[in-house]
Amino acid sequence: MIEALLPAAAVVVEAFADRPGESPYPGEEDLVARAAPGRRREFVTARRCAREALARLGYAPAPIRPGPRREPLWPAGVVGSITHCDGYRAAAVAPATALASLGVDAEPHEPLPEEVLGVVTTAGEPRRLAALRGDHAGVHWDRLLFSAKESVYKAWYPLTGRWLGFEEAEVTLDPAGRFTARLLVDGARIDGRPPLRAFHGRWLVADGLVATAVAVPSDSSLFARPDPG
After folding, report:
1. For the chain, what are the domain ranges?
2. Lowest CB count within 10 Å: 65, 84, 94, 191, which one?
3. CATH topology assigned to domain 104-217
4. Residue 115, annotated ligand binder?
5. 107 belongs to an annotated ligand binding site
6. The domain made up of 2-100 is a member of CATH 3.30.70.3340
7. Which part of the chain is the 4'-phosphopantetheinyl transferase domain (predicted)?
8. pLDDT in tens, the chain (229 residues)
9. Can you tell me the distance from the alpha carbon of 127 to that of 4, in angstroms, rounded to the nearest whole number?
10. Is 47 among the annotated ligand-binding positions?
11. 196 is annotated as contributing to ligand binding
């Protein structure tokens, strides 16, 4: 599903169910030692998807440990992202020579709780969401907005090493399956390249899920939209 949203350089492995009784990979047991059973299952399956994706790039199986913001720590020369929700787990990876960063997210395609919507939106977003609901009632645009911001954060953090709040990116959703996130904070990058100003992403709704993805090319403008491959 998410594969359709990313350029050809990205490798995606997804799962719609867990393997009964599957144990954590050696070296990851402590990460879910106290987790609830559901959280444990989604972690194990998503990490397995990530290892399978890395194998397709030629990397041997290894533990995938978390960084300071719980982000997956990928092998040198790889960028990637993991997502999981009820009924879906996925991982996407790519060579860093092709993509500078990527972020993926999946959510149940259902309304976002009102109290959450008030926390994740900027001043102009509720008005745009209302207009989209009026013209395209078959999409839960509030949930899509939330998912888009999750993907943006996952692409942002490896490039900046900083937190990005929901209120610090203003997202414009295109009914044609694209979105733009305009950054409202300093986008200085840790590699010294020109500051980030916006991210462009893609989205789809299928099988009761909403999925979003952001891919930042390594060798072209950060304003360039990702090639669907």
Report:
1. 2-100, 104-217
2. 191
3. Ribosomal Protein L22; Chain A (3.90.470)
4. no
5. yes
6. no
7. 101-188
8. 999 999 999 999 999 999 999 999 999 999 999 999 999 999 999 999 999 999 999 999 999 999 988 899 999 999 999 999 999 999 999 999 999 999 999 999 999 998 899 999 999 999 999 999 999 999 999 999 999 999 999 999 999 999 999 999 999 999 999 999 999 999 999 999 999 999 999 999 999 999 999 999 997 444 334 444 4
9. 29
10. yes
11. no
